[in-house]
Design a protein that fits this description.
mainly alpha; single chain; 2 domains; 255 residues; Helix Hairpins; 3-stranded mixed beta sheet
Length: 255
């Protein structure tokens, strides 16, 4: 929602609220923009009933009502209200800070996981252009592959790598599952690759692109681990609080 539109809407809302009591007015809000959560929180805090309408519900209602218009059209408000009136809504609820934190972490984890998957796909796409045989030897998302890709990208670079030196590091990273034979296979594939030959500035651009992707993978993985660790901590606390409440209830003397 543009800033001017948001300001106009908030000013309009400020004029409406004082004229109605919570018993007289309910608000139906489509959960399709960042502002819905803020509005729902504020209106609920003022004592009003807040009905949350899914964008999926309004999407299916449009052709039924034969209405096609943008979200800035006043008819859109009529559509949201009509869908809510038909019962396709969820009542807004206030949850504990503990629950809200877990919910936020779950959303964050899901988004980071998707970003990580997209970044890994971009790395694979880049490899399939310049060294398409690489993924057949090593999965690009493994620790060993990520280590090698920090130092090598193009087939000629793999052909010139020091097998004896790198095999030691590869064995350490892969816990001896991979080693000298893996590097030799990569070199064999590099000699007969069908990859696009890149030169001068193209190589620099590809290298910088890969470095950016590799950095993103590392950052996203670290943040995913942090989010998951915090989520598990909150989950354990929730379990302990539940157990404490049960024990407290059990110790309460009968009436």
């Amino acid at each position: 929602m543009p800033q001017d539109t948001t300001r106009f809407f908030l000013n309009h809302l400020a004029r409406i609220i004082p004229r109605h009591s919570p018993e007289e007015l309910a608000f139906a809000i489509e959960t399709s923009c960042n502002l819905w959560d803020t509005l729902a929180f504020y209106l609920h805090g003022q004592g009003f009933t807040v009905l949350l309408v899914s964008p999926l519900s309004t999407h299916h209602a449009r052709p039924i009502m034969n209405l096609e218009f943008s979200h800035t059209n006043p008819k859109d408000a009529f559509l949201v209200a009509t869908v809510a009136q038909r019962g396709a809504f969820h009542s807004y609820e206030s949850f504990s800070a503990h629950t809200n934190a877990m919910h936020q972490l779950a959303i964050t984890h899901d988004k980071l996981r998707h970003d990580l998957a997209h970044t890994r796909a971009r790395i694979r796409s880049l490899l399939e252009r310049v060294f398409p045989e690489f993924p057949n030897v090593l999965a690009p998302n493994t620790e060993t592959a990520l280590y090698l890709l920090k130092n090598y990208l193009f087939p000629d670079e793999f052909m010139n790598l020091n097998v004896a030196a790198e095999s030691i590091r590869v064995e350490q990273i892969s816990r001896r599952q991979l080693g000298r034979s893996t590097l030799e296979t990569l070199q064999q594939e590099a000699r007969r690759t069908i990859g696009v030959v890149r030169e001068s500035h193209e190589r620099s651009a590809d290298r910088l692109t890969l470095d950016a992707y590799l950095t993103l993978v590392e950052t996203l993985q670290v943040q995913l681990d942090r989010v998951l660790e915090e989520f598990k901590t909150l989950q354990e606390l929730q379990h302990l609080e539940s157990k404490y409440a049960e024990m407290k209830a059990a110790r309460k003397p009968a009436a």
